[in-house]
Design goal:
The protein is of the alpha/beta class and 613 residues long. It is 57% helix and 7% strand.
């Protein structure tokens, strides 16, 4: 009895292992299984960048052209997968290639953002959006404008509560030994609003206006002050009673005595009872030394009730009791109420900027469409979209955010329930889009979904994923030299011993076997010095020496790539290389405004227009 085909392929593969090859092969398999050459319009392939989407389209068309002439290395594999003769595969490839060229715009190979934009436009009316809205790629521009508008409202009529809220926000920064300026902290705070994990918090806070935040803050403060005032009055009374005993000073311990304990609770900090205070609470005579007179011990006993009163009231302000936990939560909440209120006000301002300018950020698009997509069935979505997809493939899945994935889950589920193949492929080690809410854990945990919203549609989809899963890995490397692959294998195994258990899954089971004919090589060096400038001198000289080494081996300068961590390091290194007669090609050097020719022309024109300047 043959085993039923599983339709949800999950491929985990490292760089150079043939991920794109696998994706293109499955695309061709699904497109060529139908006699109708227009079937490619029922296939959706998603990736992360326009460049990757263009490359995938190009690879698909190139392979079809080779299949048409019988020169493709995929011909025999496709014949086997489709149970068709080579002649039939070639015939279908000819028709499919011609149809795709004539209907190039119908090829659904695109970025996730572009697909979500199509979804948003299909549901524009439901989302109360204008049809001609624009996408703002740079979310920072929206954020900066929102911060400016928020600050302009300070002190203006009708914004008294907002002004008070931002004033408290600034004062809290001062209390935390930070700069009292608010623009920069507001901008930093605004960036957290772009994080998916904050979405539920923001939804809750958005229902509270600045006036309510101020009212809540006032109520918490009054309640806390009342509790603290009651406690301080009992401490003052206990101090007064102990002093009035006139017990000789030498009868008290030099350190940790009752005066120090009460003084610290009154004027330093309300803190958990010390070990000495615990002893005094259980036996008031412990406040004096053991060898003192019986009279001093009796006097110590006489203030027992006041000490007990302080101790038991203190317990109600500490986390060991329900009252104490409530007090501490109230205290912390009141300290952060200005922060929460500012978050809410800034979120509303960001939304207003998008409405006023008829724009939407990518994050806002994904967030808004998710409320519709996750609770509706695929046929309804396809009806609005105007397209129906039988097969869905996603590349670079490790960079997909939870919201992005949830926006596609229903479509994946529908495709599988109809008996059609789907695919996700990725590599957790290459996750680089965390700043855009990418979550590598999604790839590692598939077919299980990440915790979050779990409506009926999502739950059904998770059951389908579990039933249809076909997990595999690509263990060959067709790109790098043998020594490089060996180095990476050993490096990742060694690294996995020093990372958290959650990350160990990312590096597990991905040892590659090299398939190239050349060895390649790995050279490791380091610069360890106290200052940044000293390290720069050392690594610059090492890089220059290495470049000359490769010059001697007859490598072309254009075959050498230097990767750096940030733009500043790259700019400094480029200057150092130029000073040593090595001309690097950098992003800055390719800018027209940095070329000596245009700069000379601009200088000449300035001199002609303003010769006396």
């Amino acid at each position: 009895m043959t085993q039923r085909q599983k339709n949800f392929e999950i491929v985990r593969a490292s760089a150079g292992s043939g991920k794109t090859y696998r994706l293109v092969l499955m695309y061709l398999e699904c497109a060529l299984q139908y006699k109708d050459p227009r079937s490619f319009r029922r296939i959706l392939a998603l990736t992360f960048t326009n460049k990757a989407a263009a490359e995938m389209k190009s690879r698909i068309l190139e392979n079809l052209e080779k299949l048409s002439s019988g020169e493709s290395d995929k011909l025999s594999k496709l014949s086997e997968l489709l149970s068709l003769s080579s002649t039939e595969v070639k015939h279908r490839s000819v028709l499919l290639h011609k149809e795709m060229l004539h209907r190039y715009s119908d090829i659904s190979v695109m970025t996730i953002d572009k697909f979500v934009n199509r979804l948003v436009k299909s549901f524009a009316r439901d989302l109360a959006l204008e049809q001609d809205y624009r996408i703002e790629i740079d979310a920072n521009k929206v954020l900066e404008e929102a911060v400016s508008q928020l600050l302009e409202k300070l002190g203006s009529p009708g914004n008294k509560d907002l002004t008070s809220l931002l004033k408290s926000f600034a004062l809290n920064k001062v209390d935390d030994d930070q700069d009292a300026g608010v623009r920069r902290p507001l901008t930093q705070l605004g960036r957290t609003l772009m994080q998916e994990k904050m979405s539920n918090v923001i939804k809750l806070l958005s229902n509270i206006n600045p006036k309510d935040f101020k009212r809540i803050s006032d109520e918490l403060r009054i309640k806390n002050i009342s509790l603290e005032t009651d406690f301080y009055s009992k401490v003052d009374l206990a101090l007064e009673k102990v002093k009035s005993l006139n017990i000789p000073e030498e009868d008290f311990p030099k350190t940790g005595n009752i005066f120090k304990i009460l003084y610290d609770l009154r004027y330093v900090k309300i803190a958990d009872p010390t070990t000495t205070f615990n002893k005094i609470y259980n036996d008031p005579r412990a406040m004096v030394k053991k060898g003192v007179s019986e009279e001093s011990k009796v006097l110590a006993d006489s203030v027992s009730s006041y000490i007990v009163d302080v101790y038991e009231t203190l317990e109600k302000l500490r986390p060991g009791t329900d009252e104490g936990r409530t007090y501490i939560l109230s205290k912390k909440l009141n300290k952060r109420i200005a922060l929460m209120g500012t978050l809410s006000a800034l979120h509303q301002e960001i939304e207003q900027v998008q409405i006023d300018n008829n724009i939407r950020t990518f994050y806002a698009m994904h967030e808004r469409i998710s409320d519709i997509v996750k609770d509706n069935c695929a046929p309804f979505i396809y009806e609005r979209l105007g397209s129906r997809y039988n097969h869905i493939f996603m590349d670079e899945f490790q960079d997909t955010s939870i919201t992005q994935w949830h926006n596609l889950i229903v479509l994946y589920d529908h495709a599988m329930s109809q008996g059609h193949k789907t695919l996700v492929v990725g590599d957790g080690k290459q996750a680089i889009y965390r700043f855009r809410n990418g979550d590598y854990k999604q790839l590692m945990d598939l077919p299980k979904l990440q915790p979050g919203y779990s409506g009926p549609a999502i739950k059904y989809a998770e059951e389908t994923f579990e039933r249809e899963k076909n997990i595999s890995s690509l263990d060959y490397n067709f790109r790098s030299g043998k020594k490089i692959v060996k180095w990476n294998n050993e490096l990742f195994v060694a690294m996995s011993e020093f990372i958290s258990p959650d990350l160990k899954k990312v590096y597990a089971g991905l040892v590659q076997t090299p398939q190239t004919d050349f060895n390649g090589g790995v050279y490791l060096d380091y610069a360890v010095e106290k200052t940044k400038d000293e390290r720069r001198k050392i690594y610059t000289q090492k890089i220059i020496d290495r470049i000359h080494y490769y010059d001697d081996l007859k490598y072309e300068r254009g075959d050498i790539t230097i990767l750096v961590r940030d733009n500043e390091t790259g700019s400094n290194l480029a200057q150092d290389l130029l000073a040593n007669d090595i001309k690097p090609m950098t992003e800055e050097s390719l800018q027209l405004g940095r070329h000596p020719g245009p700069k000379a022309i601009v200088a000449l024109m300035r001199w002609i227009l303003r010769p006396s300047d």
